[in-house]
Amino acid sequence: MKNGVPVSEIMTKKLVTLKTTDDLVTAERLFKKHHIRHIPVVKGDVIKGMLSYTDLLRISFADAIDEHEEYVDTIVYNMFSIPQVMANDVVSVTSKTTIKEVAQLLATNEFHALPVVDDGKLVGIVTTTDLIKYLLKLYK
Questions:
Q1: What pLDDT score was predicted for residue 65?
Q2: Is Acetylation included in the keywords of this UniProt record (predicted)?
Q3: pTM summary value
Q4: How many other C-beta atoms are found inside a 10 Å radius of the C-beta of residue 82?
Q5: How far apart are CA 83 and CA 55, in angstroms?
Q6: Which residues, in sequence order, are bridge partners of residue 83?
């Protein structure tokens, strides 16, 4: 196994982001459209928080309803703002942080994604899925 490989080798660089002024209906559309589970919340290119699809599920009770699911989601989502639902105390790494260090952070914490920030600017995101894909390539 390679030692010292930087996270920049596996991070997602083409980012889907939200602004704090966006709404949760927009967030859900982005999660579904891009088949992702974590979206950095930014002001300009500065990270302000992280919204996960799980965060949306926590406030939605639409899973218990069959008929008008989308309508119920919209009502519930309009009751909250992104800053109210997102994680504010975001841990980040730099693009030079090693994949091993990222794996240790993700393995010992309750979150599954880390924003990658260089010089105060969001440059990527790395998730547990990125780590698993990397490990699978090593075992080919």
A1: 47
A2: no
A3: 0.86
A4: 22
A5: 11
A6: none
